[in-house]
């Protein structure tokens, strides 16, 4: 169960990472939208799981690979921005958020639009 400190750090990391990805995606200029959907930090505040939603779908795999390569740079930017609030910046792990895809599949199946409906 998360304590208040973890919740505050999760929110802080989510806000700052959202700003970082917003600037990066606008610099790419391809009409890419990267959303930080959730952040979960461990109890010892050393590792943070960051869940990303990337639109359009064809850019998901290449972008998540690029983001994983740039992890040290992203962590350094966070360190500069959050040096007053956090003593140590957690290690970052990035994951694709796929829950919206699952919801879309279920909705299509319920409407009968899917080729292989759920039985």
Radius of gyration: 17 Å
Describe the biggest sheet?
3 strands, mixed
Q: For the largest sheet, list the strands in their spatial order.
A: 1-2-3
Oligomer: single chain
Overall helicity:
40-55%
Beta-strand proportion: 15-25%
Low-confidence stretches: none
Please identify which CATH superfamily we are dealing with.
K homology (KH) domain
> What structural class should be given to the helix and strand makeup?
alpha+beta
Q: Tell me, what is the CATH class?
A: Alpha Beta
Task: Write down how many β-strands occur, each being a DSSP E stretch of 2 or more residues.
Answer: 3
- The figure for the number of domains is 1
Subcellular location: Cytoplasm
Organism: Apibacter adventoris
Pfam families: RBFA
GO cellular component, one term: cytosol
Description:
GO terms for molecular function: ribosomal small subunit binding. Keywords: Cytoplasm, Ribosome biogenesis. By secondary structure, this protein is of the alpha+beta class. The protein has one domain (4-111): 2-Layer Sandwich (GMP Synthetase, Chain A, domain 3), CATH 3.30.300. Helix content is 50%, strand content 20%. It has 4 helices and 3 strands. Strands 1-2-3 form a 3-stranded mixed sheet. Helix 1 (4-28) crosses helix 3. The longest helix is centred in the first third of the chain and has 25 residues, at 4-28. The termini are far apart. The relative contact order is 0.15.
């Amino acid at each position: 169960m998360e304590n208040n400190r973890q919740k505050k750090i999760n929110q802080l990391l989510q806000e700052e990472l959202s700003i970082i990805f917003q600037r990066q995606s606008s610099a790419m200029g391809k009409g890419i939208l990267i959303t930080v959907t959730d952040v979960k930090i461990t109890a010892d505040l050393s590792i943070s799981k960051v869940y990303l939603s990337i639109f359009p779908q064809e850019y998901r795999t290449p972008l998540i690979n690029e983001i994983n390569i740039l992890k040290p740079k992203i962590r350094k930017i966070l360190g500069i921005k959050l040096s007053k609030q956090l003593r140590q910046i957690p290690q970052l792990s990035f994951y694709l958020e796929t829950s919206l895809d699952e919801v879309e599949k279920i909705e299509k199946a319920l409407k009968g639009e899917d080729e292989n409906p759920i039985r």
